[in-house]
Design goal:
By secondary structure, the protein is α+β, with helices and mostly antiparallel strands. 42% of the residues lie in helices and 13% in strands. It has seven helices and four strands, in the order H-H-E-H-H-E-H-E-H-E-H. The structure holds flavin mononucleotide.
């Protein structure tokens, strides 16, 4: 599979911030395929590859999820924002609110779902995220390399029954991450993380 992007993978990871301000412009199906392809290259338990990707673009369906989400999440986000007086916290909660309020305007959501398939002798629900999270991280880094903004979310789990019904998910499929994706409406800044030397230990603690 050919990739036109020439962005270095380290640069993509360094600038792969949660992009909660996205333009409503459509994203080409080819780009969606590319990022899902990248997701399916991820490491996963025993190469069981139990993942499934549901791409949501339909406005009415988005609306049903968006409305349910706003109803449940608004008071929670307002409470969290009130408890966090830091400038970065205020910015983050304003971003989360922006994403929820404009839920329907985001061009694409990718729901990363998983079958309970590992280990084969005794499949455990608890191990489904072990496949879905590396795949989702691959997806957001690939999207960044293509110039697309993403936000990795789990807040949709607050309205899981609505999401399941709208997407028609079978009961046996676990619902994992939801990734909002579109063309960025803000610049990609550097991620702010602890310095590596604060968390890196050589040979022993
Ligand atoms: C497992 C996981 C769940 C997350 N859930 C949400 C979420 O529900 N809503 C949201 O807006 N961001 C969510 N995020 C994004 C994080 O809040 C974000 O990556 C973090 O605050 C660091 O910010 P940055 O990526 O912009 O540097 C989630 C990220 C991860 C890895």
């Amino acid at each position: 599979m050919g990739y036109e992007t020439s962005m270095d993978v380290f640069e993509a990871m360094e600038t792969c911030r949660a992009m909660r301000h996205l333009k409503p412009d459509p994203v080409a199906e080819e780009s969606i395929r590319k990022v899902v392809h990248a997701a399916t290259r991820a490491s996963n338990p025993g190469n069981s590859q139990g993942w499934e990707f549901v791409v949501l673009r339909d406005t009415e369906a988005k609306s049903r999820i968006g409305e349910a989400l706003r109803e449940v999440m608004h008071p929670i986000i307002e409470g969290m924002a009130a408890d966090d007086s830091s400038a970065s916290g205020r910015r983050m909660y304003a971003g989360v609110k922006h994403l929820m309020d404009g839920f329907e305007a985001v061009p694409v959501y990718i729901f990363v779902c998983g079958h309970v398939v590992y280990p084969p002798q005794n499949p455990l629900k608890e191990l489904v995220p072990a496949a879905l999270y590396p795949a989702s991280q691959n997806l957001i880094v690939a999207a960044r390399a293509l110039g697309l903004g993403t936000t990795f979310t789990t807040f949709h789990m607050m309205v899981e029954p609505v999401v399941r019904e709208v997407l028609g998910l079978p009961d046996e499929l676990e619902l994992g991450v939801m990734i909002a994706m579109g063309w960025p409406d803000r610049p990609f800044g550097l991620v702010k993380r602890k310095p590596v030397d604060e968390v890196l230990h050589w040979d022993r603690w």
